[in-house]
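Protocol step 4 of 5: obtain the predicted structure for the target chain.
Materials: sequence only (see below). No template structures provided, no constraints applied. The aim of this step is simply to have a reference model before the mutagenesis design in step 5. Sequence pasted as it appears in the construct record:
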Amino acid sequence: MSLWVLRALFLSLCTLGGYAVSQVRPDLIEGWVAGLFVGFGFGGLLIAIDEMIKGFSLRAFSAATFGLILGTLVAELIDHSDLFTFADVEGKPIRWLIRLGLFLGFSYIGMILAMRSNKEDFSLIIPFIRFSSQGKPTNLLVLDTSVIIDGRIADLIENNFLEGIVVVPRFVLNEVRVIADSGDPLRRARGRRGLEVLERIRKNTHNEVKVHEADVPDEKEVDAKLVVVARTLGAKLFTNDHNLGKIAELQSVRCVNVNELSKCLKPALLPGDTLSLKVVREGKEKSQGVAYLNDGTMVVVKGGQASIGQQVDVLVQSLHQTGAGVIVFAELKTASAA
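Step 4 output (structure tokens):
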């Protein structure tokens, strides 16, 4: 609300300024009514521009200014060359039109290129110089497609387990959209789940979310682009892709595999623990039943054959490690109590 109060004050001052100019310099603005309209229109134009560029950051403004200066310099150098001596014809505005085209064209191209560039690109123009923040270091979290579609990253963010700025590269966002528009129903469902997860992340109030616009044209694969972006930003990469994690580690990029994190947080089962499970089928041995934990771990229930299809309480007896994982051996709690 205070912003609009400030805008109203500014608009009033501009209107009064237009009136004052009409009184002091009637040769510029004739009549006080015209002065009021000119001042009001000038103030309204600036407020409209302010509203249109409200998402324009200081970094983008500085980059655009640098690009404008660079483009103007290039246009000036070309203009002072001998390329357009044929246009020096008196009475014809050919040279003026060429100059206008040069300055508008190169200024626009310079601003666009500067705004699309990242801080590493500026080091090519100003070698041996690096710009670093003197304040508190920023913790950046780069998300890949697999971890977005998985969805558990949204739970971690919403429950304050992750601190920092969530960065979603534009090429990752495009990949999720392509999957969501796929003709394959399964891929389409996964893509739409990814878009829902992104919406959850965007709406959270704990972490700022930014879309990283810079692309990596030298790399064709999304995984390679992710590693480059994470390394350039000094960010931590979150993924479910085991191979991507290994590639990131080889290039000294910090990486978190959410699947590995989930395994670390899985509750440890010990003999004597009680579980409530649904017996789904019979086991290999007589009278055995088989149930499964939420993470897919198989539980062999002694005496559970008669309880197939029922929810029962079992008592853990032992755990057996195999190449495929852990098998839990248990028996019905009622039988154990007896």
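Step 4 remarks: The domain at 274-337 is CATH 2.40.50.140 (OB fold (Dihydrolipoamide Acetyltransferase, E2P)). The chain is about 50% helix and 15% strand.
Proceed to step 5.
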